[in-house]
Specification:
Layout: E1 7-8, H1 9-16, H2 20-28, E2 35-37, E3 40-43, H3 45-59, H4 64-73, H5 76-79, H6 84-87, H7 91-96, E4 101-107, E5 126-132, E6 138-145, H8 156-163, E7 168-170, H9 176-184, E8 188-190, H10 197-205, H11 222-237
Parallel strand pairs: 4-7, 7-8
Antiparallel strand pairs: 1-3, 2-3, 4-5, 5-6
Length: 238
């Protein structure tokens, strides 16, 4: 099935009853990415479907930040809990029905889903990669040792995560520069996670938020010092 960008912003505005300025805001927020052809925006059938999904979520009281998080974690048919018969009639599902997601968890050991999420992203001894199917079910778990845990050089660990094909990376804490590097290559950083990978994954899929913030290079806040101290303490035990 072809999914060519053929609708201008004016046409989409009339079709969906959404003001052009609102469509531009969605684009600025990263919710939608129309193609630019000759300096003009063009939307595809998939874009129209995503916009309809966004409208439904807004009507249900979900704010833009929440929508971004939900749609980064799961396909729209899972977010909206569409029944099978409705999915099969959906153009987006026909195009993207093989959706899969890979989440990288910074972990302190190699016990897979039973491993504890590590307190700091860069120096985590291991990364546990979890692949999810279209319904959010775990289809595979792969554990890899962090090859740069002992190397203090910006960009190495984010590059490793990107090369492993992750869509999201989860840790107790993370530096701002590392998070920016992740976002630049299309990987969503999540901080503030604690506990077993299995439990944290369940919380993520349920749309729960974690309490945590990114650490700046010279951040002396209690939280960032705690992340660093916990990480070094865990390494000393190892």
């Amino acid at each position: 099935m072809e999914d060519k960008p053929v609708y201008t912003i004016g046409v989409v505005s009339k079709m969906l009853g959404v003001h052009p300025r609102t469509l531009r805001i969605y684009e600025e927020e990263g919710l939608i990415s129309p193609r630019r052809i000759g300096g003009k925006r063009y939307y595809s059938e998939s874009d129209l479907h995503r916009l309809r999904c966004i409208r439904v979520l807004l009507e249900e009281g979900v704010n833009i930040a929440g929508i971004k998080r939900l749609l980064s974690l799961a396909p729209c048919w899972r977010v909206l809990k569409c029944p099978v018969e409705k999915r099969e009639l959906c153009s987006w599902y026909k195009i993207h029905g093989r959706w899969k997601m890979r989440i990288a968890f910074a972990t302190e050991d190699d016990r897979g889903l039973e491993a504890q999420v590590y307190s700091h992203f860069r120096i985590a001894p291991f990364f546990t990669f979890v692949d999810l199917d279209p319904d959010g079910e775990v289809v595979s778990v792969e554990v890899k040792e962090n090859p740069f845990a002992q190397v203090h050089s910006p960009g190495l660990v984010p590059g490793f995560i990107r090369d492993e094909g992750a869509d999201m990376v989860v840790a107790g804490g993370m530096g701002m520069r590392a998070a920016e590097s992740m976002r630049r290559v299309g990987v969503e950083p999540v901080v503030g996670a604690q506990g077993r990978v299995m439990d944290v994954l369940g919380a993520i899929l349920a749309g729960e938020e974690f309490e945590g913030s990114l650490c700046s290079p010279h951040d002396d806040s209690r939280e960032c010092k705690k992340h660093q101290a916990e990480g070094e303490g865990q390494k000393a035990k190892d």
